[in-house]
Amino acid sequence: MLENTVSILISGDHAGQRLDRFLNDAVSSLSRTRIKALIESGYATINGQTIEDPNFRVKPNTTLTLTIPEPVEDQPEPQKIALDILYEDDQVVVLNKPAGLVVHPGAGNPDKTLVNALLAHCGDSLRGIGGVKRPGIVHRIDKDTSGLMIVAKTDIAHREISAQFSAHTIERRYDALIWGVPSPLTDTIEGAIGRSSRNRKKMAVVETGGKEAKTHYQVIASYGMLASHVSCQLETGRTHQIRVHMTGLGHSLIGDQLYGRGTRRGIPDTVGKAVREFKRQALHAATIGFSHPTSHKDLRFEVRPPEDFETLKTELEQYSKPRRSQH
Q1: For residues 252 and 47, what is the distance between their CA atoms, to the nearest angstrom?
Q2: Are 202 and 315 members of one domain?
Q3: Active-site option among 20, 142, 144, 256
Q4: Is residue 21 part of a domain?
């Protein structure tokens, strides 16, 4: 991805000015909306510290750096890609996203995304989000996470479902395979999540500048002390929330290349092989429940993890079974 970087030494004349307004004056080639989006996505730093709040007040004698990624085409093309749709009407689509499918076009993934597939599938039944005929992505799951998503087809649906996410009334439960066994077996993890100051691609539990995040977890099964199958209920929906919270607890997801540490030493070859062959984080969005945006009927969907997840779980189960004596 091509990037431009703008660095500005803030003078005393601008002390106390809002970050987005300062950048709007300093970088005339970008709209204020674009600048705000870049800030909220972690592309602005002051003296090396990532700032995600557009309302942040700038201070004199500090260096502001804004990274401007290469722009992405704004008109995705419809592409026929098979979709596993559980429910659809004139307002919403509920689907089971496979691991490996990117949700939205972006740098490095200009097409062959879920949005491209939905444009082809929905066609004229899309009645406009913000005046544009496109699917309304009200929430996302990572490329390498599988499972359930809601997509809005109208402005009303987009607004109503977004409001439910903001009010934390959407039911979302995930299955995860993690290293080790958490103690206690059932608990709630609370810790604000923001962009990591060390690695812009990573999120982290932060003391300041993050957004409130709460994850309820329960151990469903443990495989010796090597690994566990956990159910995670999200009360909030921050970027990489389960991955960050479980890693912070000391129990990263198996297969997580960004937050995890690979396989473990001293485990049987069959388990080690299964882990090495699992090329993604072991995370699956298993349950989603919400109120229909126009009928207000309660809808709830569940879907089992895909084959690769189940295969890995089976190997862990075999590892933890008691061995019979050979005598």
Answers
A1: 31
A2: yes
A3: 142
A4: yes
Whether 142 is catalytic is yes
- Beta strands 283-291 and 298-302 are antiparallel
Q: What are the tokens at 124?
A: 């004229």
Q: What is the pLDDT of residue 327?
A: 38
Q: Strand (E) positions, the chain?
A: 3-9, 44-46, 49-50, 63-69, 85-88, 92-97, 136-137, 146-152, 171-179, 186-190, 193-195, 203-205, 214-223, 227-234, 283-291, 298-302
**Residue at 138: amino acid letter:** V
Nearest to 256 by CA among 156, 159, 185, 179: 179
201 pLDDT higher than 50: yes
In a domain, 272, yes or no: yes
For residues 214 and 149, state if they share a domain: no
pLDDT digits (tens, 9 = 90+) for 94-150: 999 999 999 988 877 889 999 999 999 998 888 766 555 678 889 989 999 999 999
Which position has the token pair 């091509």? 2
Structural domain includes residue 74: no
